[in-house]
């Protein structure tokens, strides 16, 4: 069995997509010669040439807008926004055109765009390098949003995003780029639209995505020593959410803790909690708890562990929900 | 070389016909007498339809409508130079371009009737992109499209329309920069109509728009946008330059927005009637008609026929617009995704019962 880093698996996903579909293009800032600041596009230009894998000026709106035009010309653009906060200059293009264009032309042109964004915190990054923008995108009709938590799943989700006829935002957890996972890469199987249960449990369900999944798994192991059986769900498809898994887990465990890095207020956890209430209110044994970043700007490196949901905070929330 | 754009022509716009229609330059722009008559026919048709649209809005048959009276030469002269496979990325004020491109006017006007957003017509079949309201955002689309065309080995050129107000937006800069860096086969066609809603172009930018091209590494040219021959020649040269692989050109066509920004705007709040009257005196259609008749390429009978045809066309469009119903309710849901999530399907059921 091969051991993959997430960065390596994403690189392989791009490599394979470029090989399989001659209409796939990969472009963005520093993705060509340098291979990307996180090396996700390493070697792609050497293999597939400068026509299909190329560098752009520092021009996020131009990159996203050009992707729209390329779709009209029949191409399948896979573009990189270098860091989470640097996707904001492209917001007008993404919200007004990438998301709406298919509707605007009555389905005559698919916006088969993949927007890769290294996202979330936890790497002692500079200001504007630790944001969790999922709510902005998940709130926009016409987009799909995924956030992988492991190498093999990153490969699957990125391949599915590229193959998808709709625009998909892929939020790649920077803190997990060098995490390793062993196994065979596969693009098929449940992916976009599906959550996955990573650990079974009966007393409480812990739900998370991206880099928080690893912390939730660590938390479940600690809780097990306290005789609390915690189920772990990697939501990974943030838009659309997997209502079936939300409902099933809420019904079966009666207690849910949702964990995310983004600020709490109007975070995706609120949507998860609302859906669980709509789908399984009668089965709930306790209010859905949220363990999240604070309603503050993402802090400097020296304070980021205070901001990010810690194993301690997750375990505390689970204990309270179970004791409710 | 005769096919070089007139960059460096300077602040004074390139002109072939003086406002009174007398030639001040070489009027042979490579068009046959029949094609010259077509230019007039399109301009007359476009103005007549534009006025019909304003009337339709006043009568409640269209929602807000953005007129283009005064800009017929800029739009028709440039659009007439396009090849069949060239692709246009318009703003929301290019109805005359749409007509010349063969876009069905009734379908186009669904946008302003409030029965569909974007492009109710087929943008790929008509080679005319969706109507674009967010200022300058169509320009990066044009850049991407131009790149895609080149990657396919096509010699088609991408034509991007925008106004003077657009040049203050970041998307103008980003698209122009991409066009320059990638030497894209595209033409950036600015209609400087003097006003962006209430802001005069003198307050929009301190410089001259055509000069910005130099900073992006490609030629710019300023033409008299009310001189259909000058517009046509400048556009044809820019298209030819792009087609042979020499990259983009920025054309600034100096024209004037005779009407308000839209039917929802009252231009008397911010500009003098005297200015509008001066602009009317530089009317692009009267100018060209005068020359066309004097040059013996058309006679009064042709002019009358154009006007009659325009009246009939306006009536036909009016009838079509009024007959356009609201779209089926399910369309609100059916085009959002190619592969819609189940949750949207449930909302669709909830909404439609």
Description:
By secondary structure, chain A is of the alpha/beta class. Chain A folds into two domains: 3-182, 3-Layer(aba) Sandwich (Rossmann fold); 196-323, 3-Layer(aba) Sandwich (Rossmann fold). Chain A has twelve helices and 14 strands. Chain A has helices at 6-20, 44-48, 60-72, 91-98, 101-104, 134-138, 151-163, 212-225, 243-253, 268-280, 304-307, 311-323, and strands at residues 3-5, 24-28, 53-55, 76-80, 114-119, 144-146, 168-173, 180-182, 196-199, 204-208, 230-234, 237-239, 256-263, 289-293. In chain A, the strands form three sheets. In chain A, strands 3-2-4-5-7-6-12 form a seven-stranded mixed β-sheet, with helices on both faces. Chain A has a five-stranded mixed β-sheet with strand order 9-11-10-13-14, with helices on both faces. In chain A, strands 1-8 form a two-stranded antiparallel sheet. In chain A, helix 1 (6-20) packs parallel to helix 7 and helix 3 runs parallel beside helix 4. The N and C termini of chain A lie far apart (44 Å). In chain A, 58% of the residues are buried. Chain B is α/β, with parallel strands linked by helices and 353 residues long. Chain B folds into two domains: 33-322, 3-Layer(aba) Sandwich (Rossmann fold), CATH 3.40.50; 329-353, no CATH class. Chain B is 46% helix and 9% strand. Chain B has 15 helices and seven strands. In chain B, helix 1 packs across helix 3 (95-101), helix 2 runs parallel beside helix 3 (95-101) and helix 4 (105-113) packs across helix 13 (300-322). The termini of chain B are far apart. The model of chain B has no long low-confidence stretch (mean pLDDT 95). At the A-B interface, helix 3, helix 4 and helix 5 of A face helix 6, helix 7 and helix 15 of B.
């Amino acid at each position: 069995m091969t051991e993959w880093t997430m960065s390596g698996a994403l690189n392989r996903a791009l490599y394979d997509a470029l090989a399989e579909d001659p209409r796939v293009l990969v472009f963005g800032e520093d993705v060509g010669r340098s291979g990307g600041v996180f090396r996700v596009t390493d070697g792609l230009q050497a293999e597939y040439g400068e026509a299909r894998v190329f560098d752009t000026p520092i021009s996020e709106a131009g990159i996203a807008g050009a992707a729209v035009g390329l779709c009209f010309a029949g191409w399948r653009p896979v573009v990189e926004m270098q860091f989470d906060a640097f996707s904001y200059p492209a917001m007008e293009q993404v919200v007004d055109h990438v998301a709406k264009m298919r509707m605007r032309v009555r389905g005559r042109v698919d916006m088969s765009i993949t927007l890769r964004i290294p996202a979330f915190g936890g790497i002692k990054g500079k200001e504007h390098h630790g944001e969790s923008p999922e709510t902005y995108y998940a709130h926009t009709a016409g987009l799909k949003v995924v956030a992988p938590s492991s190498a093999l799943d990153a490969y699957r989700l990125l391949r599915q995003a590229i193959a998808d006829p709709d625009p998909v935002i892929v939020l790649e957890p920077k803190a997990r780029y060098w995490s390793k996972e062993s196994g065979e890469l596969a693009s098929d199987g449940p992916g976009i639209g599906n959550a996955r249960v990573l650990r079974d449990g009966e007393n409480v369900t812990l739900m998370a995505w991206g880099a928080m999944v690893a912390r939730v798994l660590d938390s479940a192991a600690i809780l097990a020593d306290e005789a609390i059986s915690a189920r772990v769900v990697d939501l990974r498809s943030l838009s659309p959410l997997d209502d079936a898994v939300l409902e099933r887990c809420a019904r079966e465990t009666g207690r849910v803790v949702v964990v995310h890095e983004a600020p709490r207020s109007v975070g995706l956890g609120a949507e998860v909690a609302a859906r669980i209430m709509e789908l399984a209110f009668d089965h709930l044994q306790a209010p859905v708890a949220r363990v999240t970043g604070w309603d503050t700007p993402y802090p400097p490196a020296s304070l980021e562990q205070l901001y990010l949901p810690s194993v301690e905070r997750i375990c505390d929330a689970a204990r309270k929900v179970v004791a409710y | 070389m005769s096919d070089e754009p007139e960059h460096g022509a300077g602040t004074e716009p390139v002109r072939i016909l003086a406002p009174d229609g007398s030639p001040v330059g070489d009027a042979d722009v490579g068009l046959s007498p029949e094609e010259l008559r077509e230019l007039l026919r399109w301009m007359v048709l476009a103005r007549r339809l534009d006025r019909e649209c304003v009337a339709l809005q006043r009568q409640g048959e269209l929602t807000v409508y953005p007129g283009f009276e005064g800009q017929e030469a800029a739009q028709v002269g440039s659009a007439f130079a396009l090849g069949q496979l060239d692709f246009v990325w318009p703003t929301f004020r290019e109805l005359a371009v749409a007509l010349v491109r063969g876009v069905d006017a009734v379908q186009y006007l669904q946008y302003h009737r409030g029965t569909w957003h974007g492009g109710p017509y087929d943008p790929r079949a008509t080679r005319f992109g969706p109507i674009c309201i967010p200022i300058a955002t169509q320009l990066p689309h044009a850049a991407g499209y131009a790149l895609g065309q080149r990657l396919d080995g096509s010699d088609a050129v991408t034509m991007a329309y925008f106004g003077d107000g657009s040049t203050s937006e970041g998307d103008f800069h980003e698209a122009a920069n991409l066009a320059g860096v990638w030497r894209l086969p595209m033409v950036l066609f600015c209609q400087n109509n003097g006003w962006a809603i209430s802001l005069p172009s003198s307050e929009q930018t301190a410089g001259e728009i055509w000069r910005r091209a130099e900073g992006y590494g490609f030629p710019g040219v300023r033409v008299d946008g009310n001189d259909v021959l000058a517009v046509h020649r400048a556009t044809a040269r820019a298209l030819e330059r792009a087609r042979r692989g020499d990259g983009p050109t920025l054309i600034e066509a100096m024209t004037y927005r005779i009407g308000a920004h839209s039917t929802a705007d009252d231009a008397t709040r911010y500009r003098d009637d005297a200015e509008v009257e001066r602009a009317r005196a530089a009317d692009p259609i009267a100018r060209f008609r005068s020359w066309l008749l004097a040059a013996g390429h058309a006679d009064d009978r042709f002019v009358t026929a154009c006007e009659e045809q325009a009246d009939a066309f306006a009536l036909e469009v009016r009838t079509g617009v009024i007959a356009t119903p609201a779209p089926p309710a399910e369309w609100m849901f059916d085009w959002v995704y190619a592969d819609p999530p189940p949750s949207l399907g449930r909302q669709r059921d909830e909404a439609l019962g």
